[in-house]
Each structure stands twice: as C-alpha cells, then as structure tokens.
C-alpha cells in the first residue's frame, strides 16, 4: 500500500510527458514502420506489400552508396570537429576569463546561422571563379585549385567542412567546460612531480575529459548520421551520387512520389543510428568506468 502511494505521485507527474512523447514520437515511428510495409503513395490507399520495399532498398546500389557516404561523412566530421574543439578548448582554458569568453562567442557564432544559409554562403566560397580558388590564385597556388563541389573526390569533404565550421564551437564549449572542471590540485601535483605539458595532458587531463568526449562524440555522430541540409543545398547529392546521404535519399523518394519506399529507408536510417550511435556511446561510457 505504501509503495502504491509513493508511486502514484511519480506516475501522475510523468504521465503528461509520457503522453506527449507517445503521441509525437512513438506513434509516428510505429505508423511509419507500418506504412513501410505497404505500397502507399502518401494518400489514403495503402495495400500490404510485405518486405518488398526493404528488399528493393537492399538491392539498389544507390542505397549502399548512401550508407557508405553517410558513415564516411560521420567519420570525417566527428574526428575533425572534435579534434579542433579539443585543441581550441585546451588553448582557451589557459587564457583569462575575458579572452576565453570573447573567443568562445566568436566560435559559437556560426552555429547561430541556419544550415541552409550557411550552405549558401559556402557554395559561393566553393565556386570555381571565387572564394578559395581566388585566394589560391593570389597566393600562386593554382595547382591546388579544384572544382570543390563538382569533383567526386573532394565533394563529400567539402560538404563536411561546412558542418565542421558550423559546429566546432559547440565541441569547443563542451570540452572547455570539461577543462575548467578539472581538479587543480591534481594538475599541480603532476606539475610538481615533473610532468611536462604533453605528459600532463595525456596522463591526467585526457582521461578526466572522458565525459566531455562521450557527449561530444555522441551528439556530433547522431547529427552526422542524419545530415540533410548541407548536401541538399550544396550538391543535391551529386556529383554522381558522391554526396548522397541516407536522409537526402529519403527526402528524394518521399517527395518524389515513392512514399512507402522512402519510409522503408527512414526505418533503415533509424536502425543505423541506433546501432552505430548506441554502440559508440556504450563503448565511451565503459571507458569512463575504467578511469
């Protein structure tokens, strides 16, 4: 009886949140999963089609290419973005509060721009006759000029660079919070023992930054696996599918009239995010336990 009385207020408090979550998250996923096994075109008619949409998805080379592009994009962005964030945070942690605040605000400014607007800005920088190519020409480095978004060998990296530029400030802010929360007595003890800057970083600071690393990698990885705006605006998935991501493929099929097939791809993306992001997060959490 007492346990029931203790549980009732908790259940009552959680019920509105659970109801909202169920209506706006669980129900759309369940409905989408159901419709992915039909032949619906987005209208009221939906005949059961079994696993035909999934069989077709796994038989299409474009689906495999989109999965590879999405994973490769995620690897590039997660490594470079968090690497830059770690370096910036390490430098800022040694600066005064005023300098730290000013530079942190500057680094976070790109995140205030919408991804679509950022893509349009960078599309100008990537034009063959302006932006980066013009700067390279001024420096006498014409050999490095490229058609950045038109060359399959550089297009995906060029799109990833926009993502890195936009969200490196987030990674910096999270790592900086981790640096500022490090126990100073432990760092001073390492310095007294004769540990140099590099040794202090790898033996003391880096292990203690494990929670910050987990948050940064998890957030950036999930965002990259469902990336959509950058390839849509910058390349439209080209050239020759080199920047086609799963989210963009889903968009093209759903709004191209093949609604059920697009939903099947969305379910595949959901599983991919759950497996990859969940697995990486689990490994990083376990790493925290051994520190």
UniProtKB/TrEMBL annotation:
Q: Domain of life, per the record?
A: Bacteria
Q: List, in alphabetical order, the GO biological process terms annotated in this UniProt record.
A: transmembrane transport
Membrane topology of this protein: Multi-pass membrane protein
The record's subcellular locations are: Cell membrane
Q: Which residues cross the membrane?
A: 7-30, 71-93, 105-125, 155-180, 208-228, 259-284
Q: List the InterPro entries hit by this protein, alphabetically.
A: ABC_transporter_permease, MetI-like, MetI-like_sf
The alphabetized UniProt keywords are: Cell membrane, Membrane, Transmembrane, Transmembrane helix, Transport
The leader peptide range reads none
What GO terms fall under cellular component here? plasma membrane
The ABC transmembrane type-1 domain extends over 67-282
- The family this protein is said to belong to: Belongs to the binding-protein-dependent transport system permease family.
Entry protein name: Raffinose/stachyose/melibiose transport system permease protein
What is the species of this protein?
A: Microbacterium pseudoresistens
Q: What is the lineage of its organism?
A: Bacteria, Bacillati, Actinomycetota, Actinomycetes, Micrococcales
